[in-house]
Amino acid sequence: MILLASLCSCKKNINLQGDQYQEGWIRVLGIKGKDTSSTKFMNARTETVGLLFVEDSKLSATLKSYTPMPNGKGQYVIEMTNKQPCQVILRWSWEDLTLDSEIPASDVLHANETVTFTFIGDARAGKIKVHADGIDCGNSSTLILNITTTILPITYTTSKAYRQNDQMYVIWSTETPQDVDWFLIMWSPDGNKANEVVKGIIATDANIKNYSFNFAAYKIKKE
Predict the structure, then answer these.
(1) Mean pLDDT by 10 residues, the chain (223 residues)
(2) pTM over 0.90
(3) Where exactly are the structural domains of the chain?
(4) How far is CA 84 from the centre of its chain?
(5) Are 79 and 64 contacting, i.e. CB atoms less than 8 angstroms apart?
(6) What CATH class has 52-147?
């Protein structure tokens, strides 16, 4: 309990604006007596909608979602809109990452058409580039979707954070809940331990392995 009190007292007070979603980093501390274990830092943008939007007068691209997959891969869902009154052909390219598969396979967009494309590719920072070739209307500029570490998740086997609407959640599990007395849910704006604040304290139950925490409503769920 002394360790618990010291951890809580040394953290800076950071205003989360009503505790609704705010970009930042989360980790969960497990405390047993004087021993402390921690998950890695997690970013709450691992699963969300409308991550990026870029456009010019002829074409727009929206990275609708990103989903982690096994073996260092990820699924990118990109919505493309042809803003011209003629048919265009999309020309895709990438930098520092490779997209291996594309659905649908056709890169044709009809006049003023919106099509959602799903790609499977590398789960790492880089750039997805696309421009439209329009025979009758002219070419668009090259739109660039910058895939950064705020979009890519860190993969965990027992914990993750995610955003749903304007709320932020963290879920985690332990195979040995009897070895933990308390869980502390920590938040920082930059992944720096010096700037962390304690957002929740949960007493464990020896029979419960799975936990979740809702930052917006401070709701705790145990299963």
Answers:
(1) 47 38 72 75 53 91 83 87 96 92 92 95 89 91 85 51 74 78 83 83 87 63 41
(2) no
(3) 2-45+153-222, 52-147
(4) 32
(5) yes
(6) mainly beta
